[in-house]
Amino acid sequence: MAHRLDQRRETSLAPLEDERERAACHPIASPGISSAHRTDGRPFGPDRILRVSANDFPADIAALPKAELHLHLEGSLRPTVVVQLAARHGVQIQERDVRQRYRYSTFPEFLEAFKWVTAFLREPEDFAFLAADLAEQLLAQNVAYAEVTLSVGVMLVRGQNPQANFEAVLEATEPYEGRGLRLNWIFDAVRQFGPGPAVEVVEWAHRCASPRLVAFGIGGDELSVSSRQFQPAYRRAESYGFHRVIHAGETGGPGLVQEAVELLGAERIGHGIAAIHDPRLMDLLTERKTVLEVCPSSNVCTGALARQLGRPTARITEHPLPLLLRRGIPVVLSSDDPPMFHTSIGEEYQHAHEMGLSRAELEGLVANGFRYAFS
């Protein structure tokens, strides 16, 4: 079917809606203060943010083509796109309403926002519309390759046809390859939905049988269901020839990262920052060349970083990215759900620079994005 993607391009090339909103999870830094939130635990508003400065960021690093390996299609819903999708389905909302929803200080709060905003993705045309908008955003950020995750587990719960949605997405994004952007896709199950639905997601991936579909993964609440229960799903995914990824060590402990590697055979770990608590696990990741997909802004906004550091709050400059990278663990840098975390892949590299990474280390991160792709 032909999708007439006639969305208004006057806004599509803006990395995010408002410069102030992009940094909403990163607080004003004051001497002696290490906080991503007010003392009452609520996120800072747009009037109390730290603008990301690119003055000393190497321009040649910014200009390099990049790869995005941990990026959710549904989490790429910009407020202006949400408003348009809602209107398609007879719901009138304002961009400010969406921005208010995109404020949280804990992972459960983020999941609630994700549940709300993705409810406006109801038809294949909606997914196509969003996919084309994401492709425009990626091109504007010098992204040449991305592996984009589709929340197929959510589609199934909502009674949607994953194959129809996926075909619409493929058709909508095919023209972008001619403009320098190559996209592959990952089908994602939801951990808290349980092992049976995860196997169902694997079967849908097999049914779709597309060379653009490269991996199976699991996201959601990593504390909800034990890793061992997902072994049948991962074994089946491997038997079908799919690569395997999983979110682990984001809000959970290092044991979940180890289980992902040893029980599920995961080749890449979404986040994995809990590995800092276990030197032997870091050695294991290094030896097996298991990749960590690190998303700093995400970890600040969901409270995952503060949780791992054992404190009520944390700043992005306290992220363990430098430690993990210098330990020899394969690391890629990603933006996760960019509008929902008020960031972009370019800003994630700026944050890495602020953490103290050298030019050579930044160049290495850029190269890793292509080196560890499933292309």
Oligomerization status of the protein chains:
single chain
Low-confidence stretches: 1-24, 26-52
- Round the mean pLDDT to the nearest integer and report it: 88
Output the CATH class name: Alpha Beta
Question: Which superfamily, in CATH terms, is the homologous superfamily?
Answer: Metal-dependent hydrolases
| Gross geometry | globular
Derived structural class: alpha/beta
Q: What portion of residues belong to β-strands?
A: 5-15%
Number of domains: 1
CATH architecture: Alpha-Beta Barrel
In total, the number of strands is 8
* CATH fold description: TIM Barrel
What is the count of DSSP helices, taking H or I runs of 4+ residues? Answer: 18
Order of helices and strands: HHHEHHHHEHHEHEHEHEHEHHHEHH
Task: Please give the order of strands in the largest beta sheet.
Answer: 1-2-3-4-5-6-7-8
Largest sheet report:
8 strands, parallel
CA-to-CA gap between the ends? 27 Å
Q: What does the radius of gyration come to?
A: 19 Å
Helical proportion, percent range: 40-55%
